[in-house]
Design brief:
mainly alpha, CBS-domain, two-stranded antiparallel ribbon, 24 helices, 5% strand
Length: 495
C-alpha cells in the first residue's frame, strides 16, 4: 500500500503539486536508508567468497537505482534541485548519478551556488560539456563562473555566431544587472502588418517562449516601437494593422539597470515581461517574471544571511570547517562587543554590590531595547530596499521612530517599574529601583531605535548591504548602552 501511495505522489509531481518535492524527498531518503542498511548487512555477512558478496551488493544497488530513477524521472528539475540540497554529500551524489544526463544542465541552473559547486566537482569534463551545451546562452552565462574555463571555451565554440554574441553580451554585464538576467528568446514583428499576418507567423512556432504576454514591435534596425499584448491580438479584427492597436507606452529597461530596481518595477506594475533596450533604443532582450522572482528570493535570503552575520550562502551539509569559517567574522565582532559590555558592567561593580537587585534587572533593559531596535531596523532595511527612504523624508521618519520608541519606553517602562517596585516592596528603596528601570528602559529604547535607523543608513552610505551584520551592531549598542544607562542612573540615585 505504501509503495502505491508513493507512486501516486510521484505522478502528481508532473502537475507541479507544491508538496510533491517533499513527498519525493521522503521516498528518496527511505530508499537511500534501505540501501545503506542492506550494504552494511552484506559487509557483516560471512560469504564463501568476495566475488559472491560483490555480486549481491551490485544487484541490490541496481534495484535501488532503478527505483530512484523512476522517482526522479517524474520530477520537475526544481524539485530535483530541492532534493539534492536537502541531502548529505554522499547521498546527494548517489541521487545525482540517478538523474538522466540530458537533464543535468537544467538542474544545475536550479540548485544553489554552493550545491552546484559540489555537483560540478563530481562530473568529468565530457559530462560538463554535454550538460552545458543543452542550455540557452543566458543560462550558460548564469553558471559560467562556476565552470572550468576550458569547458566554457569548448561550449562557446559549439554555439552559433548569434548564440556566441548573446553569451558574450550576458557575461559582459555585472551579476546584479538586468543585462546578466535578460532572455534573448523573444518574438518581434513590424508595425505595418495586419493582425492576421501576426497570427499566421505565431502559428509557425512549435511553442512560444516562456512568459510571452506580448510580442515586440521593432523597425528594420531593431529599434523598439512598442508592444502588442496577446489579448489585443486575439480580440481585434484580423485586418487591423499592428500600429493601430499596439501599446507605445512601454516600460523599458536598460541592460545596466540594477536587477533589484527592475524587480521593484515588476512588482509595482504587475509585469510579466519587459523589453531591454540599449542606448540607441534597439531591442537587445527581455526580462521575464521568473527571473524577477529569483531576484526577489535571493535578495531576501542574502538579507537574512547578512543580518545574521553569515558571509555567504552556506551548503546545509558543507564540511564543519567551511561552515565554521563562514561564521567567524561577525562572531569575532560579537565577542569583542561582549567584552566591551562586560567592562561597562565592571565599571559599576560597587553599585551592583550595594544594590544586588540591579544585576537581575539589567537583562530586561538590554532585551526589550534590542527587540524594539530590531523592529525599527527591519522596517528601515525593507524601506531602503524598496527605495522608499529619501533625503526628503529621512528626517521625518527618524523623528517618528524616536517618538514611537519614547512612547513605548514610557508605557512598558512604567509597567516594568511597577512590577520591580512590587517585587522589591520590602526594600525601602524599592520605588527607586522601579524608577531607575523606567528611565533606563525609555532611554535605551530610544537609543535602540536610533541604532536601528542609523546602522542601515550608514551601511548604505558606505556602499554596503544595509543588512550586513546589522543585528550584531544593534545588539552591541543596546547591550552596552543599556548597561551604562541603567547602572549609571543607579549610581546617581543610590549614592
Amino acid at each position: 500500500m505504501n509503495e502505491e501511495l508513493f507512486e501516486g505522489d510521484e505522478r502528481s509531481a508532473t502537475a507541479h503539486d507544491p508538496e510533491a518535492a517533499q513527498r519525493a524527498l521522503a521516498r528518496v531518503e527511505q530508499l537511500l536508508a534501505k540501501q545503506h542498511r542492506v550494504e552494511a548487512l552484506a559487509e557483516r555477512e560471512h560469504t564463501p567468497g568476495e566475488q559472491k558478496k560483490a555480486l549481491v551488493e551490485q544487484l541490490i544497488q541496481r534495484r535501488h537505482q532503478t527505483e530512484l530513477k523512476s522517482i526522479l524521472d517524474r520530477l520537475h528539475p526544481a524539485d530535483i534541485a530541492y532534493i539534492l540540497e536537502a541531502l548529505p554529500h554522499q547521498d546527494r551524489l548517489v541521487v545525482w548519478d540517478g538523474v538522466k544526463s540530458d537533464r543535468d544542465g537544467e538542474i544545475l541552473i536550479e540548485v544553489s551556488d554552493s550545491v552546484r559547486e559540489t555537483l560540478i566537482a563530481s562530473m568529468n569534463r565530457e559530462e560538463l560539456v554535454d550538460a552545458v551545451e543543452s542550455l540557452e546562452a543566458d543560462e550558460i552565462a548564469a553558471i559560467a563562473d562556476d565552470l572550468p574555463a576550458d569547458v566554457v571555451d569548448e561550449v562557446r565554440e559549439s554555439l552559433t555566431s548569434e548564440e556566441r554574441a548573446q553569451l558574450r553580451a550576458s557575461m559582459s554585464y555585472p551579476d546584479d544587472s538586468v543585462g546578466a538576467l535578460m532572455d534573448f528568446e523573444m518574438i518581434t514583428i513590424r508595425e505595418n502588418v495586419t493582425l492576421e499576418v501576426v497570427l499566421r507567423y505565431l502559428r509557425r512556432f512549435d511553442a512560444l517562449p516562456n512568459h510571452t504576454d506580448q510580442v515586440f514591435v521593432v523597425d528594420r534596425h531593431d529599434v523598439l516601437k512598442g508592444g502588442l499584448p496577446l489579448d489585443r491580438l486575439l480580440l481585434n479584427e484580423p485586418d487591423v494593422e499592428v500600429a493601430a492597436v499596439m501599446n507605445i507606452d512601454l516600460m523599458t529597461l536598460s541592460p545596466l539597470d540594477e536587477s533589484s530596481e527592475a524587480a521593484q518595477a515588476f512588482e509595482r506594475y504587475d509585469l510579466v515581461s519587459a523589453p531591454v533596450v540599449d542606448e540607441a533604443g534597439r531591442l537587445v532582450g527581455r526580462l521575464t517574471v521568473d527571473e524577477v522572482v529569483d531576484v526577489i528570493r535571493e535578495e531576501g535570503e542574502d538579507a537574512a544571511l547578512a543580518q545574521a552575520g553569515l558571509l555567504e550562502e552556506e551548503d546545509l551539509f558543507a564540511s564543519v570547517w567551511n561552515s565554521a569559517r563562514n561564521r567567524w567574522l561577525w562572531l569575532a565582532v560579537n565577542l569583542g562587543t561582549a567584552f566591551f559590555a562586560s567592562r561597562v558592567i565592571g565599571a559599576f561593580e560597587s553599585t551592583i554590590e550595594r544594590v544586588v537587585a540591579l544585576a537581575t534587572l539589567m537583562t530586561i533593559v538590554m532585551g526589550i531595547a534590542g527587540n524594539s531596535g530590531n523592529q525599527t531596523m527591519t522596517l528601515m532595511i525593507r524601506s531602503l530596499a524598496l527605495g522608499q527612504v529619501t533625503g526628503g523624508n529621512a528626517k521625518r521618519l527618524i523623528l517618528k521612530e524616536l517618538v514611537i520608541a519614547g512612547l513605548n519606553g514610557a508605557v512598558w517602562g512604567s509597567i516594568a517599574g511597577l512590577v520591580a517596585w512590587w517585587i522589591y516592596m520590602d526594600n525601602p528603596r524599592g520605588w527607586l529601583i522601579g524608577l531607575t528601570l523606567l528611565l533606563a528602559m525609555t532611554l535605551n529604547m530610544v537609543i535602540g531605535s536610533l541604532a536601528g535607523m542609523f546602522v542601515p543608513l550608514m551601511l548604505v552610505r558606505s556602499g554596503r548591504d544595509p543588512a550586513l551584520g546589522s543585528s550584531v551592531l544593534l545588539t552591541f549598542t543596546t547591550d552596552s548602552m543599556g548597561v551604562f544607562i541603567f547602572l549609571g542612573l543607579a549610581s546617581l540615585f543610590f549614592l
